Amino acid sequence: MLNPGTASISDKKSAVPRRFITLCGRIFRDTDPQYFPRVQYRGRTIFLCTESCLGAFLSDPDLFYKMHRNSEKGKGR
């Protein structure tokens, strides 16, 4: 049994914000994605880096997605 002031290892892992990538390819580590704009698109949650990007996405989602979806290609080599 744990003391009230201690947490298990699994509790600590769940408290650490996860890594996520915005549609434009920006990678955020140790950041809470709840503070970033997001939208549902074709059954997926798309994260955006700013409210301006959200506005541009909402004005023409298909075009914005087409222009930015390949931002990650070539990274990590």
Describe this structure in words.
With 77 residues, the chain is an alpha+beta fold. The protein has a domain at 18-68. The chain contains three helices and four strands, in the order αββββαα. The N and C termini lie far apart (46 Å). The relative contact order is 0.16. The model has no long low-confidence stretch (mean pLDDT 77).
Shape: globular
**Low-pLDDT segments, ≥5 res:** none
SSE pattern: HEEEEHH
SS elements, strand count: 4
Rounded to the nearest angstrom, the radius of gyration is 17 Å
Give the strand order of the largest sheet, numbering strands 1, 2, ... along the chain.
1-2
User: Biggest β-sheet: count, sense, barrel?
Assistant: 2 strands, antiparallel
Give the rounded overall mean pLDDT. 77
User: What is the strand content?
Assistant: 15-25%
| Separation of the first and last Cα atoms | 46 Å
- Number of H- or I-type helical stretches: 3
Which percent bin holds the helix content? 25-40%
Structural class: alpha+beta
SSE arrangement:
Elements: H1 9-15, E1 20-21, E2 27-28, E3 38-41, E4 44-47, H2 51-59, H3 61-68
Antiparallel strand pairs: 1-2, 3-4
What are the main properties of this structure?
single chain; 77 residues; alpha+beta; two-stranded antiparallel ribbon; two-stranded antiparallel sheet; globular
How would you summarize what this structure contains?
The chain has 77 residues and is α+β, with helices and mostly antiparallel strands. It contains 3 helices and 4 strands; from the N terminus they run αββββαα.
